[in-house]
C-alpha cells in the first residue's frame, strides 16, 4: 500500500473511538526502553479474548520478573474480567490500543487480537519504543507482511512471533534431524488440520452487536460489515473475512512455519487450492473442506524441490493426530506434531511393507506445561538479553503467506505462480489485487 503514516498518524487517527484510561496505579520510574536482567518487565495486553484471559494473563502473570500494568479490549466485559485477572485496580484499562501504547509504564506489548488487528498495533508499538509479542498469523493479506518486517528492522525492537512450536525442544530436534539428512531425499511433506464441527454453526441473521462490544472498532481496518453472532461469540472469527482467513491461515501457519524452517525455504513457486462447504452448510465465508498443493523449488534440504500437500476439514476428525505433518524421505519418514515425533524406515523397492518399530522412538505423548509455554519465557529472556527470537516478523510473514496464497488460488480458481522477491503473482492481475487488501479509513499502513 502506498499510504505511509507516522507515529502521530497512528496515535491520533480521527474517527476511531476514544476511550478513558482507567487506572489508579502509578510506576514512578516509568518503563525502560531496554529492561535489564534485574528489571521487572511491565506488560500491556492488547486483546483480551479467550486466549488473552485463559492463557496469556495466567502464564505471563506467574512468571518472575514480569507484571501486567495495562490491558486493552473493545469488549467492555472482557476488559473488566482481564483487568481483575491481571491485578485489579493497579492495572490500567482501555478499549483504545493507542492509549496503552502511549503509556510510559509499559515496556512490552502483547498483541493477541484477531488478525485484522495484528500489524497496526505491532508497528505502532515499535514506533513507540516498545518490545512486542505478536500472536500469529501476521495479517489479513500477504502485502501487510513487508510493513511489519520493515518496522521491526527500522526501530530495532525485540519482536517475537507467537509461533510457539519453535521453542519446543522436540520440534528443534526434529528440524535438526531433517536438516542433517536423516530422512534421505525429501520429496513431499503432508500437512493436515482435521476437526469435527458438525453440524456447523448455522446461518443466523445479522443483528445489532451486544452492548458491551464496540463493533466498529473491532472491524477496524477491514471493510465494514454488519455484526453477526457467528463472527464473534460463536468462535467463527477465523472463518469470516472481516477477522480471519480460514484454518489454512489460522492453524496452517504453525505447520508452514515448521516446514519452511526445516526445509530452509521461504517461498513456494506455485500454489493451487480448492474447497467448499462439503461437510455442512453455514454462513462461514471459507470452506469447511479444503485441499492445496504447494510446489517449492530446490533448496538446501530438498535439492530437487518438493511438494507440500495440505488438507483441512471440519466435518470429521478420524485421525488420532488431528493436526500434524509428515516429512516423506527416501530413507525414512517423520510424523511430527505437538505430541512428539516418530521416524519410520522406508521400504526399499521390491520389498514388502511389514510392521516395524520406529527408527527413533517417539517423544512423550503429552508434553509438560513448561514446554508448551516455554515461548513466553523465551520472550521475556530475549527482552532482558536484547536478543532477537528465531520466531521473527519475517519468519511469520513467510509462514502466513503460504496460507494466503492458498486462499488467493481458491478465490481466483487457478494456480498461483508466485515471485516472493517482488511479492507478486506472475501475469495475474486478479491475484495481485488480493496481495494487499485495502484498509478502511482512517486506518493506514506504514512503518
Can you say what the CATH homologous superfamily of the largest domain is?
Dihydrodipicolinate Reductase, domain 2
The outline comes out as globular
Q: Percentage of helical residues?
A: 25-40%
Might you state the CATH topology name of the largest domain? Dihydrodipicolinate Reductase, domain 2
Radius of gyration: 22 Å
Task: Please give the CATH class of the largest domain.
Answer: Alpha Beta
Report mean pLDDT, rounded to a whole number.
89
Helices, by number, come to 15
* Strand element count: 15
Protein model, in words:
- The chain has 447 residues and is an alpha/beta fold.
- 29% of the residues lie in helices and 19% in strands.
- The chain folds into two domains: 7-166 and 378-392, Rossmann fold (3-Layer(aba) Sandwich), CATH 3.40.50.720; 167-367 and 399-432, Dihydrodipicolinate Reductase, domain 2, CATH 3.30.360.10.
- The strands form two sheets. Strands 13-12-11-7-10-9-8-14-15 form a nine-stranded mixed sheet. A six-stranded parallel sheet has the order 3-2-1-4-5-6, sandwiched between helices.
- The radius of gyration is 22 Å and the shape is globular.
- Mean pLDDT is 89; it is low at 1-20 and 355-366.
Amino acid at each position: 500500500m502506498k499510504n505511509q503514516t507516522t507515529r502521530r498518524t497512528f496515535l491520533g487517527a480521527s474517527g476511531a473511538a476514544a476511550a478513558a484510561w482507567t487506572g489508579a496505579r502509578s510506576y514512578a520510574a516509568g518503563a525502560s526502553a531496554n529492561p535489564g536482567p534485574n528489571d521487572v518487565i511491565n506488560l500491556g495486553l492488547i486483546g483480551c479474548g479467550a486466549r488473552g484471559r485463559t492463557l496469556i494473563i495466567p502464564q505471563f502473570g506467574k512468571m518472575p520478573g514480569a507484571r501486567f500494568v495495562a490491558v486493552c479490549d473493545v469488549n467492555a466485559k472482557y476488559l473488566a474480567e482481564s483487568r481483575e485477572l491481571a491485578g485489579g485496580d493497579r492495572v490500567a484499562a482501555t478499549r483504545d490500543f493507542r492509549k496503552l501504547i502511549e503509556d510510559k509504564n509499559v515496556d512490552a506489548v502483547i498483541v493477541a487480537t484477531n488478525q485484522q488487528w495484528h500489524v497496526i498495533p505491532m508497528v505502532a508499538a515499535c514506533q513507540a519504543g516498545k518490545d512486542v509479542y505478536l500472536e500469529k498469523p501476521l495479517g489479513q493479506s500477504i502485502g501487510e507482511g513487508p510493513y511489519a518486517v520493515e518496522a521491526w528492522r527500522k526501530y530495532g525492537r525485540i519482536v517475537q512471533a507467537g509461533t510457539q512450536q519453535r521453542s519446543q525442544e522436540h520440534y528443534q530436534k526434529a528440524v535438526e534431524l531433517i536438516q542433517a539428512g536423516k530422512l534421505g531425499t525429501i520429496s513431499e511433506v503432508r500437512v493436515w488440520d482435521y476437526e469435527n464441527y458438525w453440524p456447523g454453526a448455522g446461518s443466523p441473521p445479522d443483528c445489532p452487536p451486544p452492548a458491551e462490544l464496540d463493533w466498529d472498532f473491532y472491524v477496524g481496518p477491514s471493510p465494514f460489515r454488519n455484526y453477526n453472532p457467528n463472527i464473534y461469540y460463536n468462535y467463527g472469527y477465523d472463518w469470516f473475512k472481516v477477522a480471519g482467513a480460514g484454518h489454512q491461515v489460522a492453524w496452517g501457519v504453525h505447520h508452514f512455519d515448521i516446514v519452511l524452517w526445516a526445509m530452509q525455504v521461504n517461498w513456494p513457486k506455485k500454489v493451487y487450492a480448492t474447497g467448499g462447504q462439503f461437510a455442512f452448510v453455514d454462513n462461514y465465508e471459507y470452506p469447511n473442506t479444503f485441499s492445496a498443493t504447494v510446489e517449492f523449488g530446490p533448496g538446501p534440504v530438498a535439492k530437487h524441490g518438493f511438494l507440500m500437500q495440505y488438507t483441512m476439514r471440519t466435518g470429521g476428525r478420524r485421525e488420532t493426530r488431528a493436526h500434524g505433518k509428515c516429512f516423506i524421505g527416501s530413507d525414512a519418514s517423520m510424523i511430527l506434531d505437538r505430541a512428539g515425533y516418530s521416524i519410520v524406515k522406508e521400504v526399499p523397492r521390491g520389498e514388502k511393507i511389514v510392521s516395524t518399530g520406529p527408527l527413533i522412538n517417539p517423544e512423550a505423548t503429552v508434553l509438560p506445561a513448561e514446554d508448551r509455554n516455554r515461548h513466553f519465557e523465551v520472550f521475556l529472556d530475549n527482552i532482558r538479553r536484547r536478543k532477537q527470537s528465531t520466531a521473527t516478523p519475517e519468519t511469520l510473514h513467510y509462514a502466513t503467506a503460504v496460507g494466503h496464497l492458498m486462499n488467493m488460488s481458491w478465490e481466483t480458481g487457478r494456480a498461483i505462480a508466485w515471485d516472493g522477491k517482488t511479492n507478486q503473482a506472475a501475469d495475474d492481475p486478479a491475484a495481485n489485487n488480493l496481495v494487499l487488501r485495502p484498509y478502511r479509513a482512517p486506518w493506514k499502513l506504514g512503518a
